Amino acid sequence: MIPRPGRVLATAALAALLVGCGGGQGDGGTAPDRPPPTTAAAPPARTPAEPVRPLARSVPVGLRIPAIGVDTPVMGLGLAADGTVEVPPVTDDDRAGWYRHSPTPGQVGPSVLLGHVTVGRYGDGVFRHLAGLRRGERIEARLENGTTAEFTVTAVRTVAKADFPTDDVYGDVAGPELRLITCGGPRDGQEYRDNVIVFAELSATKGR
Q1: Who wins on pLDDT, 150 or 39?
Q2: Which CATH superfamily is domain 7-25+61-206 in?
Q3: Of the candidates 4, 26, 35, 186, which lies 20 to 30 Å from 117 by C-alpha distance?
């Protein structure tokens, strides 16, 4: 059984976010204009009247967010030697990362994925436009077993890192949910002041 992130792991995740998103180019102040979708986007999924059946554990391998042009591989993230949560490396082929001590997308609980807003000299990060997502828009997590878990955005919040909502992000929930996290807001030196957090609920599944 995958351990659900408790207060200790949630605090570690917060510490990683405080140091892992800053640096590089771009001011990160307000949400930039959204890029055109990579393909023609379907109408936003509606939250169903009946909950979608939770999925069995399967590691995410890809993440697609049509409204902001994201289509990225997903890597696994664990804990660093200092006890903080790892973040994806700063590279020119920036990708999202799934925190593997959280549920996999579609399992009951909050599945947590992190990504950079900027990646140093390489420019924009994979989650550069995350703050531009809107309620009702679709997120697709491609799983290792061939299933796609579709989520509907329920809220997008920008919060000061000092006020990170640990319980809202990592706390127990009744159904399968998703959390996408990056940095945002103005920068203090090389660090961003805020976190952008997307909350979403499982709305459909495809494949197996």
Answers
A1: 150
A2: Sortase (2.40.260.10)
A3: 4
